[in-house]
Design a protein that fits this description.
Blueprint (H helix, E strand, L loop, with lengths): L2 H5 L2 H48 L3 E2 L10 E7 L5 E10 L2 E14 L4 E10 L12 E10 L16 E2 L4 H7 L5 E8 L27 H28 L1
Parallel strand pairs: 1-2, 3-7, 5-8
Antiparallel strand pairs: 2-4, 2-6, 3-4, 4-5, 6-8
Length: 244
């Protein structure tokens, strides 16, 4: 038997492998590209989180016209008494047991005359505990939260009762008799002396700056794992085809 006759059956087998090999290579490049993109996103997100940590540990900066949501800022003005709204719904564990509550939003007239909505923190709906109401000119520090828009499944707001489930500064301002509020809300951050749990003073302010989720490492592992699995499946299949 000649050498050509021996190698002849291998030629059709190699041809059968051609297109599967090309498709596998393309899919492998896509999976590796997605994994590498997630690695880049991981480094980018870690840099943002490190910046937030530095901002949280530093003194607040004055509130500007275009504040970043990941920066601690401060605003000075007078809280307008008797004008408050409630936003959202949240259950907290208090010393007396679980309590349903919401975040209390109150307008502040800044030193420059602007009206700023301030999220002073969580308050129980039962209102059995007194709500602190500072008088005169005060300075509050926190972070800025942009407004949301109503969606199909958003709970309806109650303008008359000043009860809101969508953080829409314009709608909240209208309900409070302040139609010209700034297009964002300043969420008050707790001081070191206000971080006790469960809270005993109300409103109970936020504890930390907002942090975006960071799942990029798990995503990268998933894409790289799929690439390895795809390569292993192709190798096993190709060996069977060559033996056939």
């Amino acid at each position: 038997m000649t050498e050509a006759a021996i190698s002849a059956p291998a030629v059709p087998a190699l041809r059968r492998l051609l297109w599967p090999a090309v498709m596998t290579a393309v899919m492998l490049l896509v999976l590796l590209g997605l994994g590498s993109w997630q690695v880049k996103r991981l480094f980018w997100k870690e840099a943002i989180l490190a910046e937030i940590d530095r901002a949280e540990a530093s003194a607040p900066i004055p509130l500007g016209p275009s504040p970043s949501p990941f920066t601690k800022v401060a605003a000075t003005g007078v809280l307008l008494p008797g004008e408050t709204a409630l936003y959202g719904a949240d259950v907290r564990d208090l010393a007396s047991g679980p309590e349903m509550g919401a975040r209390m939003i109150q307008p502040m007239r800044e030193s420059n005359g602007d009206i700023l909505l301030v999220d002073r923190g969580w308050v129980p709906l039962s209102r059995r505990a007194p709500i602190e109401q500072p008088a005169g000119t005060i300075t509050v520090s926190g972070y800025v939260r942009s407004g949301d828009s109503h969606r199909w499944f958003s709970a309806p707001d109650d303008m008359a009762e000043r009860r809101f489930f969508t953080l829409d500064p314009k709608a909240i301002g209208d309900a409070l008799g302040q139609p010209n509020v700034l297009p964002f809300v300043l969420v008050v951050l707790a001081s070191d002396a206000e971080t006790s749990a469960p809270p005993t003073r109300f409103p109970d302010p936020a504890r930390h700056l907002p942090r975006p989720p960071n799942s990029h490492l798990s995503y990268a592992i998933t894409w790289y794992g799929l690439a390895v699995a795809l390569l292993a499946i192709f190798v096993v299949w190709a060996r069977k085809e060559l033996r056939a």
